[in-house]
Amino acid sequence: MHFKLGEKVSFLHESGWGIIRAFEKKSVVVEDETGFERHVLLGEMVKIHGSHGDHMDTVPVSLSGKEAENDIGHQSKRLDDVLKLKDFWEIDLHSHELLESEIGMSNAEVLRHQMSVFKSFFRGACDKQVRKLVVIHGVGKGVLKGEIRDFLSQQDGVQFYDADFNEYGKGATTIELFYM
After folding, report:
1. Three-state SS across 95-117?
2. How far apart are alpha carbons 139 and 141 in whole angstroms?
3. What is the DSSP letter of 164?
4. Beta-bridge partners for 135
5. SS3 sequence, the chain?
6. Which of 23-37, 113-127, 144-158 has the lowest mean pLDDT?
7. What is the pLDDT of residue 52?
8. Cβ distance 173 to 135 under 8 Å?
9. Within 13 A of 116's CA, how many CA atoms are on the CB side?
10. What's residue 49's pLDDT?
């Protein structure tokens, strides 16, 4: 997945969000919602898409003194609201997006890595109750797409279908998640 400076991202294995501030060899420097800079691996975050992503600007980045004391409860409530407003998460599972190099890896090893990243992404989305995902898997021979769809067919509360052709071509799947 390609990221740009200033983009808003959410973390896969924890709550919270941030804004990309710099790029490094294998990681990205992200200023999180509390104003701290963190080094995050590319596969451990996703872009925040949709018109509701702009609401994140209303959450204070840092507060001091009395303002912090008065706002601490309100800030966590707004963060929870912001996470629920996101339209969807997107991940690009092309191997060149996930791996620095495929040299020495078999096709099966690359596929295992792609599926591991996908399952982690899926679990993170379920944990945060994200309602819609777009998974870019490419066209190729359809092996990765088949593996993803086999996995999804075994999950409860999941509906999936080809993503919007005009935006993604034939190489992506949209997943809708339903929670009780």
Report:
1. HHHHCCCCCCCCHHHHHHHHHHH
2. 6
3. P
4. 91, 173
5. CCCCCCCEEEECCCCCEEEEEEECCCEEEEEECCCCEEEEEHHHEEEECCHHHHHHHHCCCCCCHHHHHHHHHHHHHHHHHHHHHCCCEEEECCHHHHCCCCCCCCHHHHHHHHHHHHHHHHHHHHHCCCCEEEEECCCCCCHHHHHHHHHHHCCCCEEEEECCHHHHCCCEEEEEECCC
6. 23-37
7. 36
8. yes
9. 11
10. 63
Q: Which range among 38-47, 115-124, 148-157 shows the weakest confidence by mean pLDDT?
A: 38-47
pLDDT tens readout for residues 53-90 = 333 333 333 333 333 334 334 434 433 443 444 478 99
Mean pLDDT of the chain: 77
What structural domains does the chain harbor?
Answer: 8-48+51-85 (no CATH), 89-177 (3.30.1370.110)
The residue type of 163 is A
Out of 13-22, 60-69, 83-92, 163-172, least confident range:
60-69
Element (H, E) at 38: strand 37-41
Place of tokens 């945060």: 128
What integer pLDDT is reported at residue 16 of this predicted model?
Answer: 73
Which residue bears the tokens 């973390």? 11
DSSP state of 155: S
**Residue with the two structure tokens 């992200």:** 30
